[in-house]
């Protein structure tokens, strides 16, 4: 008997070869970064912002016990692959999706259960070896050792294409499992259906009760070889659910089945060429999935080539020159920032909104997958630099469309496939919209946007907003995580004021400028920390600034992290902390804190600790840049060196925490360039230090903004001087308009700190209490 690998090699030599992956911007990307540790990324095939994320799911039997670690479906340390499903989050801190799992099988007897990962041959799952894996933007391949099948994946915007090279002479099969999911809720599949049309198209749907309740998704699937036989099997043992309408296509079918637990076996016989499987999805209906399938013609190689070209264009907006490890890390970070917000509307513009009804988008593409508590900080500001205005306009229009059809009349909080999860805090669609508007992004109704922002900030039932509007803070005896909510609401309010003032709405601006100062109501001058207050005005006791307990005073953090969240008025915070010297000392105390006697094992998101600085979670992301506001930018430079060295590397475990739909990655892209948007909405970026030798950002109108780090190496980590377009830059920030105008930002690096540069108050970044007109 010949070995499976030898048989595969012989077949592949006679069949379609692996697509050419010649040198291009895509070649600098390693999609395996973040697939180990707590990065929660996936290595599979996806187009820029694609609706389909076609990727392997490994030992998802663990999802029942620990869905957090398998939130992306794939963990690098797992030894088996269960199959390839079509929807995945990139770096989320919560699990769901994993829709419509496909797995090849060979031989006469086909298992319809995945089996035990520890018992080879007990089901349709298969062992694999990482040396047989290939992952590039838009392409993934692996050899499935047990059936001896070479599996390849590519994806378009709304489609995924599989290609399976089966061993010669063996009967080829596919298992389609509608029971598989990446969420551990009992009874998660409410209803599902399968339908085989006379033309050989397999379609179906399912409704799930997962992170987002009542989520409906449909698929359509076509094959490059005819079916010889098939079986639709129901494994349900409970009463059928009556609320789901099923396919509803109205035409004749060769076979149909519906129920809670469906799995299909598709038989193709012995094949002489690889089997291609093209799949499209839709949140609207099966007809939409079929139309999406038809909207992107071409075979595997054609789709792969088109998507690769799309990735080369998107990634080519930022050219980087750096040592190989840093170049890979930054290029991959940029790749991860271009995966979401993902397309969620069909090719004809229809989409399913938060009201669970179908709506029609006119002149824009509806997008979803909004992890706004994470991404308002750097992900969305980065997109305003590296993506066309149309992308950013579509994002804003999608947020407004969701609010238009929201049962509660407010903007999205954490949404995917049009469904709201109400996860995390704040109304952080507000700064995304304000920042885009202030940067000149058009294509949306600014009056409607401002109305939506004010409505979201005035909805009393949400997150203690009623008390916040009456008391000036969220009361901890009435609402959990009150300290965090107070300061986050205050920042969001400031962005409303900024946009309202730019639109000439002084009445709204004055109201929300006043609310933006509410952070002071939670700042305790005696302890120097932001704290939770009760409705009677007293701070809650006892108080431990290192305590992290979900559902208490702070959101995924403690007083050390949240006491620095005043991005709209960091100068005011420095003053409240006792001035420059006291603030620098407190920042140093945060980074240098001895955690040896603390146990944070109960808190999933607390990763990447440097003292009490937690880089693996978002509340800390701007903190290293705050030395600039206290007149010590060289301390920012030193901390950035420490963070980048310890929190990022070009390996599967190269992200210290969840990528959170691109936020961890956006932080690295900005920081590598030498600046960061501490305060989205201010139109300023705080200068840190660069980590690449040279970068060139392509801009509209054929302009280019170039960053040069003269003399940069490990021995020269400090900024000696900065110039903009050949003129010395004495300030520690750069304006958005200066970047968009094109030109050159040049750093001269040196071995020791320059303690004179950008220290004067007038040269410090924006703060509302010291605003420059």
TrEMBL record:
State the InterPro entries in the record: 6-hairpin_glycosidase_sf, GH-type_carb-bd, GH92_a_mannosidase_put, GH92_N, Glyco_hydro_92, PNGase
Q: Which Pfam families match?
A: Glyco_hydro_92, Glyco_hydro_92N
Assigned GO CC terms: cytosol
User: Signal peptide position in this chain?
Assistant: 1-25
Is Membrane included in the keywords of this UniProt record?
A: no
Could you give a GO molecular-function term held by this entry? peptide-N4-(N-acetyl-beta-glucosaminyl)asparagine amidase activity
| Keywords, alphabetical | Hydrolase, Signal
Q: Where is the Glycosyl hydrolase family 92 N-terminal domain?
A: 29-282
* Glycosyl hydrolase family domain sequence ranges: 289-750
Sorted alphabetically, the Gene Ontology BP terms of this entry are: carbohydrate metabolic process; glycoprotein catabolic process
Matching entries from NCBIfam families are given as:
aman2_put
Kindly provide the name given to this protein in its UniProt entry. Glycoside hydrolase family 92 protein
Native organism is Sphingomonas alpina
